[in-house]
Predict the structure.
Amino acid sequence: MNLNQLSQNRYTAKSYDPARKISLADMDQLCQFLRYCPSSVNAQGWHFMVIGTEEAKKQILPAFAGANQPKVQNASHTVIFCAKTSLDETYLQKVLDKEEADGRFANEQQRQENDATRRYFIGLNNTSPEALLNWQSKQLYIALSGLLFSAQALGIDSTPIEGFDAGKLDEILQLKQKGLTSVVVATLGYHAADDFNAKLPKSRLDTEDLFTFL
């Protein structure tokens, strides 16, 4: 894979073709990519709501600003990146048990050390609900970036979206009751023929403006 070509070809779609849908096989690849995205101390304090039906699109539409509504409406899928509002004992035990089942530990000592390390770093970032959300949001933006480029690798267009009412979206999807809150959104699909951004050259500052090599 040519990474330069991948990064230069990826752009933010402004208009989607509603007639083109992402295949189930490609969506499965993207979901599995998100599943395996990097997560600090493997806390995985996230959940991804994948919106693909017309009914679900209409349901969430009121939470989006006017300019973003057509993207949600016409894109094949919308992914809502949610943070867990609590990493409680039950959840931490679930993560640890899954790691053990997947063969991550050679012995009980490694298991206990891994658990202690995760709890330590979560504790550092869990001094308040706001601090926990801030920490988990950083993790979600790493996953978002990965999704945008993995979609491009499959020939799928994407749009990262912050222009939405998180409170309203949480209410519509009853995320609070699920112990979740929405952080950022991405639409996925295929750009429309009239998408002006697909025709524009990509513009970035020169290498010497962005990098210092020591």
Remarks:
- The CA atoms of residues 34 and 147 lie 7 Å apart.
- Residues 129-153 form the longest helix (25 residues).
